[in-house]
Amino acid sequence: MNQTNTSPSKYSGKTKLAYCLSIGRANDPDSLVAYPSMANRCHHCHPLAIPTFEHQGAVCLTEKYLECGVFLNSKGGKFPSEIEHPENAAHNKLRRITSSSYRLWFGAFIGFLTVLLVILAGIFAFKPAAAVPAIIQSNTQPAVSPSATVSPTVTIQVTLPLPLPSPVPSKTLVPKKVVPTKTATLTPAVFFGLDTTLGTDKKFIIHRVLAKQNLELLANRYNTTQQAILAITYELFTPVWVGKLVIIPVDQKDVSGLPVLQPYKITQAGITLTELAKTLGVNVDDLERFNGCGLCRFKAGSWILIIPKS
To answer: Strands 134-137 and 154-157, how do they pair?
Structure first.
């Protein structure tokens, strides 16, 4: 569900808005997702950051944004790491590493070109000395006759440069055909925190009820009904207390064809849905359908949905 910020000027007058106008999409700050989502960015800091789903649900998308420490600080400051979504922090770290590697390789490339140009300049600047003809005067004089005129004999000897040796043809190296070896592709581990959108064709959210929240408020926010939340959440009864985990069917009001679902917290780092299905004795196809990310490896502490055993 998208919502567009339509206020004539941000935080004008003393009007108290129902959500923070600094929250919005990365390429469209005036448009936001009305529920906690990876698409929402905080535009009050630099660089843009994704708040945790808990912070979005409790502060950014409520009137409590006026008490937010980021909002109260000057615009353009660094976003606090304790309320930054883990995927956003990993992305910023990878970007800094990539930038440093690029500068290092670029400097090495410039240095290589400089050395190559110096070598080529030295080769083309060298010229062999020109051959200088040597004039050798002979002291030998012909026999002198009384009637002959004596003239000296001059011998000119020209020294030619030695011919350069013929280039020896070098062996042409034929590259060997490299046969690629098959290696297993490891998918990076992912973290599914609370309020992460799960599922393939139908979407669900695991949410921990906060203070001043009730099923009616959550149902209106995610375009569903109280009855749908009660029907799909395993052993959920009213009244719902603060801190209770509920499953919200996003944009679904009729859940009659869906099974009852139960939140499950992963404790083993790097486990896949296939391995988890064998451990719990459940159907792996159901895990992939209600959680998505069938080939993912999960970090410890992630939340997923399972069908409880009857």
So the answer is: antiparallel
In this structure, the chain runs to a length of 310
- Between CA 99 and CA 84 the distance in angstroms is 22
Summarised one tens digit per residue, pLDDT across range 98-152 is 667 778 888 899 999 999 999 998 888 766 555 555 454 555 554 544 444 545 5
User: Where do we find the tokens 């600080």?
Assistant: 73
End-to-end, the C-alpha distance of the chain in Å comes to 34
d(CA 111, CA 164): 34
pLDDT band, very low/low/confident/very high, at 203 (cuts 50, 70, 90)? very high
Contact criterion met (CB below 8 Å) for 305 and 261: yes
What is the C-alpha radius of gyration for the chain, rounded to an integer number of angstroms?
40
The Cα–Cα gap between 262 and 260 comes to 7
Q: What integer pLDDT is reported at residue 182 of this predicted model?
A: 46
For the chain, percent of residues with pLDDT exceeding 90:
40
pLDDT tens profile 167-176: 666 666 666 6
Contact 26, 46 (CB under 8 A): no
3-state secondary structure the chain: CEEECCCCCCCCCCCCCCCCCCEEECCCCCEEECCCCCCEEECCECCCECECHHHHHHHHCCHHHHHCHHHHCCCCECCCHHHECHHHHHHHHHHHHHHHHHHHHHHHHHHHHHHHHHHHHHHHHCCCCCCCCEEEECCCCCCCCCCCCCCCCEEEECCCCCCCCCCCCCCCCCCCCCCCCCCCCCCCEECCCCCCEECCCCCEEEEECCCCCCHHHHHHHCCCCHHHHHHHECCCCCCCCCCCEEEEECCCCCCCCCCCEEEEECCCCCEEHHHHHHHHCCCHHHHHHHHCCCCCEECCCCEEEECCCC
